[in-house]
Amino acid sequence: MPMWIASRCPTGGDEAALFLSNAAPTGYMGADFCNIRPGDTVAVWGCGGVGLMAQKSAFLMGAGRVIAIDRLPERLAMARDHVGAEVLDYTKVDSVPEALKEMTYGRGPDACIDAVGMEAHGTGLGHAYDLVKQQLFAHTDRATALREAAVACRKGGVLSVLGVYGVVDKFPMGVIMNKGLTLRTAQQHGQAYLPRLLEHAQEGELDPTFLATHRMSLEDAPRGYEMFKTKQDGCLRAVFTP
Ligand SMILES: NC(=O)c1ccc[n+]([C@@H]2O[C@H](COP(=O)([O-])OP(=O)(O)OC[C@H]3O[C@@H](n4cnc5c(N)ncnc54)[C@H](O)[C@@H]3O)[C@@H](O)[C@H]2O)c1
């Protein structure tokens, strides 16, 4: 990590700087895509590193409310305690779009960010359909979060897709068209966002060090990666020190 970057992260030092090249620019870009106006409500599917950073960035950009959606209690707790988001456990409701509609007085969130991607879990028929088709090699992606985000978003709102996808079946293009949603997506533009992220870090407005749930030696990296992959022991990100 270049010294000049770490030296501009007074609250988190090297570790804060480390995440400015990973989850932070992705989440920040996802919030930036949403053209947030003061007081907007932003819903974020996924409370991994990317989702949590999108939630934090949405507040930085003026959102009045951020609603974080996941099923893992330790991640929802992070969204609540470290970000200040309202949380929604998707396994506890019949329909996420309906729950969001209720939480937003019938309107739907102003912007919806998908920080889940093609490996979404789910509870409903749509997820079962994806699983069966995946087993039959008939299509590749489990797109529950993406579909829900499109359906939940208010008319004229923004659908910001950070999750990685290949081929998506049952993509609700009609919903996007008829509601006039703006669809934004990209692989993160790390270099473009780094100067703004450094400014936020320097001002003490963005400290992503809470993402580092595990610290290990470099020799333990295979174990750390396995924990990260399987989300064991609440692992969100493991940091390895040589
Ligand atoms: N666009 C980019 O440049 C870029 C960069 C980095 C990562 N990504 C992608 O962003 C996505 C998230 O990355 P991450 O590191 O945070 O992943 P992660 O696996 O740590 O987090 C994903 C979270 O989504 C939750 N989830 C699963 N199904 C859900 C559903 N139906 N509704 C709500 N939440 C659900 C999981 O429980 C998990 O907490 C991945 O697809 C990753 O490949 C994109």
What would your notes on this structure say?
The protein has about 240 residues and is of the alpha/beta class. The protein has 2 domains: about 160 residues, Rossmann fold (3-Layer(aba) Sandwich), CATH 3.40.50; about 35 residues, no CATH class. It is about 40% helix and about 15% strand. The protein has 11 helices and 8 strands. The strands form 2 sheets. A 6-stranded parallel β-sheet has the order 3-2-1-4-5-6, with helices on both faces. A two-stranded parallel sheet has the order 7-8. Helix 11 links the parallel strand 7 and strand 8. Helix 3 packs across helix 4 and helix 6 packs parallel to helix 8. The chain is globular. Bound molecules: nicotinamide-adenine-dinucleotide (NAD). The site of nicotinamide-adenine-dinucleotide has 27 residues, from helix 4, strand 2 and helix 8.
Short structural summary:
This protein is an alpha/beta fold and 242 residues long. The chain has helices spanning 3-6, 13-19, 23-32, 49-60, 73-83, 96-103, 125-135, 144-152, 173-178, 190-202, 221-230, and strands at residues 41-45, 65-70, 86-89, 111-114, 158-161, 182-185, 212-217, 237-241. The chain folds into 2 domains: 24-185, Rossmann fold; 207-242, no CATH class.
What distinguishing features does this structure have?
six-stranded parallel sheet; 42% helix; Rossmann fold; alpha/beta; binds nicotinamide-adenine-dinucleotide; 242 residues; two-stranded parallel ribbon
